[in-house]
Amino acid sequence: LGVGAAFDWFAGVTPRAPRYVQAIGMEWVHRVVSEPKRVGPRYARLIKPGLKIFAQEILGSKRQSSVA
């Protein structure tokens, strides 16, 4: 179960991102900017596989829509 920064937020250790950042789904960017040494390396490791999955999803959906 991944809870991310939830424990820090509820404990009051780390402030949450502004509501407009939360609303657009970019709270992770706020975390990287506010805690770069802590979460930056972790997110950097996840970007490459994440981009690969994203590309596969985009290309897969285009192939499926052109077949239908």
Topology:
Layout: H1 6-11, H2 19-23, H3 27-34, H4 36-67
Helix pairs in contact: 3-4
Detailed description of the structure:
By secondary structure, the protein is mainly α. The protein contains four helices and no strands. It has helices at 6-11, 19-23, 27-34, 36-67. The longest helix is centred in the last third of the chain and has 32 residues, at 36-67. The model has no long low-confidence stretch (mean pLDDT 81).
Count of runs of 4 or more consecutive helical residues: 4
The radius of gyration is 16 Å
Structural class: mainly alpha
- Main sheet properties: none
Fraction of residues in H or I helices? over 70%
As a percent range, the share of strand residues is under 5%
Features:
0% strand, 68 residues, 75% helix, elongated, single chain, mainly alpha
Provide a compact summary of the structure:
The chain has 68 residues and is mostly helical. Helix content is 75%, strand content 0%.
